[in-house]
Design goal:
This protein is an alpha+beta fold. 14% of the residues lie in helices and 29% in strands.
């Protein structure tokens, strides 16, 4: 595929950013690019303040709207095919491959599940009700009507929807893990030098619960089913790592449930998780692949009939 259509990223100046210049604002908030790179974008007419072309040294006021008009770019190649596992007039369930992001972000726009849904359903595009990590394969629930979107989202919020994942994990203490265990490690934001923040195991994070069942053992490796009561970002990756058995091949989360990253400054303000300029560093990021995690079962009430539905898609990997 060629260039995509570009994208417009919007921000609003908060009280802590008031008084900064345009370049300082972007360089601090989106650290994947240097101040010089952001200055070049301002000079090129890609950044606007309240609809007017910005200047590099323009001082910002609280509440102002900023827009960065990113020019079209070549997106990284990813697998774009997905299968429709279930479909009716209100909803659909599709199986996405590992490597395909669900929503735009981090350099991906058209090369996403949403982008491909827009191609397949150009007039009434189904909307994902939840997300899977880019490296996670499996079932994604989509709403095709406002009624479905409202009622399926309510089931997620009320935790009446069941999501079960198949995973391969490994660690030196795997043999000490019981056949059934529950992880309730809180998950919160941790400062990241280029993304602003990243999610990981924190003492003061949000409540999260993962119920795990060991299905197979092979030395220090485990095959598991994981049922998540909550849906925190990267929850299973963080929880299994916190339990001492990170997902095998996970480039980001190490034993303990915190990300592998360079030294960070804990006093820095973790401002955003969105990457809007594209990066080139070798720091591990949440979208990096390499692990094996598959959403294989969804159970939910049909938004119109109320019938309990179960949708299943077998994992694409084997064990051991």
């Amino acid at each position: 595929m060629g260039l995509n259509g570009g994208w417009v990223y919007r921000d609003r100046v908060g009280p802590r950013e008031a008084g900064q210049t345009v370049v300082a604002y972007y360089a601090q908030r989106y650290r994947h690019s240097t101040a010089e790179q952001w200055c070049d974008r301002v000079v090129a007419g890609q950044i606007y303040v309240e609809g007017q072309a910005a200047t590099p040294d323009q001082v910002l006021d609280r509440g102002q709207t900023l827009t960065y008009h990113r020019p079209p770019w070549h997106e990284p190649p990813v697998p774009l095919d997905f299968d429709v596992v279930y479909e009716d007039g209100d909803l659909a369930v599709v199986a996405k491959p590992s490597g395909l992001p669900v929503m735009p972000g981090g350099g991906f726009l058209d090369h996403t599940l949403l982008g491909q849904l827009q191609r397949r359903y150009p007039t009434e595009t189904p909307i994902p009700i939840h997300r899977l990590g880019r490296g996670t394969s499996g079932l994604v629930l989509l709403a095709r009507t406002p009624l479905a979107r409202s009622r399926l989202t309510a089931q997620l919020r009320d935790r009446t929807m069941t999501k079960i994942y198949r995973a391969i994990a490994a660690g030196p203490t795997a043999s000490q893990i019981g056949d059934r265990f529950t992880v309730t490690q809180p998950i919160g934001k941790i400062f990241h030098p280029t993304l602003g923040h990243i999610y990981g195991a924190t003492d003061d994070g949000a409540f999260a619960q993962s119920d795990c069942q060991v299905l197979g053992r092979d030395r220090d490796r485990l095959l598991l089913d994981v049922t998540i009561l909550t849906g925190r970002p990267h929850q299973i990756r963080i929880h299994l790592a916190a339990a001492g058995i990170p997902l095998e091949g996970d480039p980001l989360y190490a034993i303990g449930g915190r990300p592998r990253s360079p030294e960070v400054c804990p006093d820095e303000d973790p401002s955003t998780e969105q990457t809007i300029g594209g990066g080139g560093d070798a720091i591990a990021r949440p979208g990096d692949c390499g692990y094996r995690l598959h959403a294989h079962t969804l159970r939910f009430d049909h938004p119109r009939t109320g019938d309990r539905l179960t949708v299943h898609r077998a994992a694409p990997f084997t064990f051991p």
